[in-house]
Amino acid sequence: KYRGEHKRSGIRIGIHTHNDCGLAVANSITAVKAGATMVHGTINGYGERCGNADMTSIIPLLCIKMKRPCIQQESLAKLTKLSRVVSEMANMIPLNSRPFVGKSAFAHKGGIHVSAVCKEPRAYEHIYPELVGNTRRVLVSDLSGKSNVEYKARELGMELGGNGFDSHKIVSEIKKLEQEGYQFDVADGSFRILVEKFTDQFKPLFDLESFRVTVEKDKDKPCSAHATIKISVGDKNEITAAEGKGPVGALDNALRKALGNFYPGLDTMRLVDFKVRVIDGREGTAARVRVFIESRDKDDIWSTIGVSEDIIEASWHALADSFQYKLAKHA
Fold first, then answer.
1. Sign of the four-CA dihedral 293, 301, 251, 176
2. Contact by Cβ (8 Å): 87, 80
3. Does 226 qualify as catalytic in the annotation?
4. Considering 16, 18, 40, 113, which one is annotated as catalytic?
């Protein structure tokens, strides 16, 4: 009956929406267009049931798309950081696909696509990511060309050979490794180490000599794991042992203990995500597995990857890359 009426009554109204139908942001914006002057919401949309209206979408929509400066530009540029801080405080994994502030909001993958983005970002990005404190990400995968590799290397502070020779070698190696199950578009830390190896820049800060992991299960007690590890740092060897709630936790604890005698400050680093994916389920228990590890310290978040028929070995590769990345940052 009242559809289409836009009479202004002079009464100030606000809007408070929930996301039960996936329309919280859309309904909030529609309400503003109809005259609402107050919008309720939460950072990242955290809330009961399906969540509340997500202010990390509403704020840039109002400020940038609708030209309604509800906050200062300096504050808008802190939006991505705010989103990630709130995720951390809520102990929630950040949603990569979140509009404006997600890690994938300005991510590009295909080689020709990336080359074009480098020439004219506005052809592929609806806003400059810096406006909301985000950054452009170029993903490296079997779809990549040398433009992806060179852009990603620059993003990580590395310059490849001007003739493109290094880039072509790295692209070929990435295609080969992704056939084996690796995914470098989600493993920036492992990608950096791969590039450093191909350009003779990699200087390992420790080497594995051997490790042993045992898991024990008593009748009435939960499983416990024990890891013994031998590493070398320069001309010195270190053998340590540690326990953990599982084999990967025990390996992590043993490696930290061993490296702590050479490199102080590792207590700021922690593992925040661990995923295992069977690459080809048709192989059954003999299938190769891909292990993804995400780590963070007070300044950075990085991800690493390992692949093997053995889940412990795959976990070791991802874990070792993570520690190599952390130590190289402060070498």
1. positive
2. no
3. no
4. 113
207-329 folds as Double Stranded RNA Binding Domain (3.30.160)
- List strand residue ranges (DSSP E) for the chain, in order: 14-16, 38-40, 107-108, 137-138, 207-216, 224-233, 236-244, 270-278, 289-296, 301-308
Question: Cα 209 to the chain's mean position, in Å?
Answer: 30
> pTM of the entire structure?
0.62
> How does strand 14-16 pair with strand 38-40?
parallel
Cβ proximity of 196 and 205 under 8 Å:
no
Counting every residue written for the chain, the total comes to 331
In the chain, domain spans? 14-89, 107-198, 207-329
Q: Which of 148, 127, 266, 155 is nearest to 205 (CA)?
A: 266
Reduced to 3 states (helix: H, G, I; strand: E, B; else coil), residue 19 is: coil
- CA-CA-CA-CA dihedral for 301, 305, 311, 315, to nearest 10: -50
Tens place of pLDDT per residue across the chain (331 aa)? 455 555 666 788 999 999 999 999 999 999 999 999 999 999 999 999 999 999 999 999 999 999 998 999 999 999 999 998 898 788 787 898 999 999 889 887 765 666 777 778 888 889 999 999 998 877 666 555 667 777 777 777 777 765 556 777 888 888 888 888 888 877 889 988 988 888 888 889 999 999 999 998 887 888 889 999 999 999 999 999 999 989 999 999 999 999 998 998 888 898 888 988 887 766 665 578 999 999 988 888 899 999 999 999 999 999 999 999 999 887 6
